[in-house]
Amino acid sequence: MANWLDKALGRRSATIIKPVPFVRPCPCGEQLSGIRQERARRLICAECGEPHFILPVNLYPESRRIHFQPLEVGEFDESREYEQPPELDVEPEMDLDSVEEEIPRESRATPPAPDLGRALLDDWEDDQEEPPVSQHDQAIVIPQRREERAGQRQKLLLVGTAFFVLIGAMVVWAVWDRGKESAEIRLQMARDAGLIALESGDFVTARREFAEALDALQTLGVTGEQHDSLHDLWMESEAAVGLTNRSLLELVESANRTLKTGTIEDWDSEFHAIFEDQWILIDQSPPQIVPGDAKEGRRIDLLWDFDNDIPIQVTGIERLLTKTQTGGPRRIVFAGQLAGCRRESNAWVVELNPENAFLWRRFRSIEQLGFTDDQEPAQIMRDLIESQAELPEVSEAVSLPQENPDAT
Q1: Which of 341, 356, 373, 354 is nearest to 237 (CA)?
Q2: Is 212 exposed, middle or buried (0-12, 13-18, 19+ CB in 10 A)?
Q3: Pick from 92-96, 165-169, 265-269, 351-355: least confident
């Protein structure tokens, strides 16, 4: 790029290069002179054979600043003695004034290198050559190769499937192990918080915490005594929160009044709106067992007369009667959810949900709910509740409610 400066400056034509002479002294005393050209070149002294590098013409813009004193022609120190080099058989140089380009060196002739790659490729092609195969043999070989490839693909598929199954099992195990550790922490915290709330009479908080503890037990897969004890505490908290503020006598009076002035459908609607699914706590001493049908089981007669000596009976407690009849106390304190109230020919029947009726097992909560009798010593009720707590579980494990526990 001899004209790069003109191209960079956008000049239309190249700048004419002025001839710049040069004089270069040689250590042997000879002076080399000539004209600088656009490219650098190398000159060899004709007397001693010493090579000299000649700079090209300066193509950069000139400046007036002088950084060094230029050497004038003829100022070379001739008094300095130079060691004469040995005589060499050097061909005389051409006329320097007519030299335009650098004198090229003679290239040494090198023998061609053997093409080893081509030789190896030829040997490999020779090895790959196969004898011709007949059409009959091709018809046999091609299906065999297809079967081999199909077998290889099947093996690869089995290996890949086994690998992904192993990875999935490891992920599931890691998630389960972390969930197990989290469930153990939740169980401990929820159980402690529930016991504190139950002791202070905060049944809403106790129900929520015991529900959390039961959920943690379900995650851990724990059953047995630990699950039953927490379930009993949750059931008592649930009953205490949803306890109705009306007695059985008021329930029967409402049913009797509605049936006198309306229909059975009117009473069903009123029961569904006011009484259904509410809890009721009953203290019966002694329980008067009345035979019932195969569907509802036995009943107990409350020995309360209503409306011309019509008795009030409670059904849905077959399991409680079965347990208390064998070695149990003659007096029972139990709770259940109201499921219905109807008038039969010889009695008023109050239906309890048979799935969640249970014997009360904590005297402290009885006191907090205000069900102790001032005329009866507290020790008698305490002994009764403690004797019921020693009985095995007689109610089935009730599933936790799906709605928010704090909704009540």
Answers
A1: 356
A2: buried
A3: 92-96
Query: Does position 395 have pLDDT exceeding 50, yes or no?
Result: no
> Mapping DSSP to helix (H, G, I), strand (E, B) and coil, where does residue 5 land?
helix
Give the Cα separation of 331 and 363 in Å (integer): 15
The strand pairing partners of 52, in sequence order, are 43
- Count of CB atoms within 10 A of residue 313's CB? 21
d(CA 32, CA 140): 87
* Residue 103: per-residue pLDDT: 47
Residue 297 CA neighbour count, 13 Å, CB half: 14
Task: Give the CA-trace dihedral at 358, 362, 363, 366, to 10 degrees.
Answer: -60
How does DSSP assign 150-172, residue by residue?
HHHHHHHHHHHHHHHHHHHHHHH
pLDDT of residue 143: 66
Beta strands in 291-361 (DSSP E): 299-306, 310-315, 332-343, 348-352, 358-359
| Shared domain check, 256 and 229 | no
Task: Say what the pLDDT of residue 153 is.
Answer: 81
Residue 159 resides in a domain: no
Is there a domain that residue 375 lies in? yes
Domain enclosing residue 201, as ranges: 167-239
Kindly state whether residues 202 and 305 are assigned to the same domain. Answer: no
In angstroms, rounded to a whole number, what is the distance separating the alpha carbons of residues 285 and 384?
A: 11
Q: Where are any strands of DSSP class E within 182-308?
A: 279-284, 288-290, 299-306
The CATH number of the domain holding residue 230 is 1.20.58
Rounded to an integer, what distance in angstroms lies between the CA atom of residue 393 and that of residue 225?
Answer: 10
**Look-up of token digits 């001899």:** 2
Cβ of 90: how many Cβ atoms within 10 Å? 13
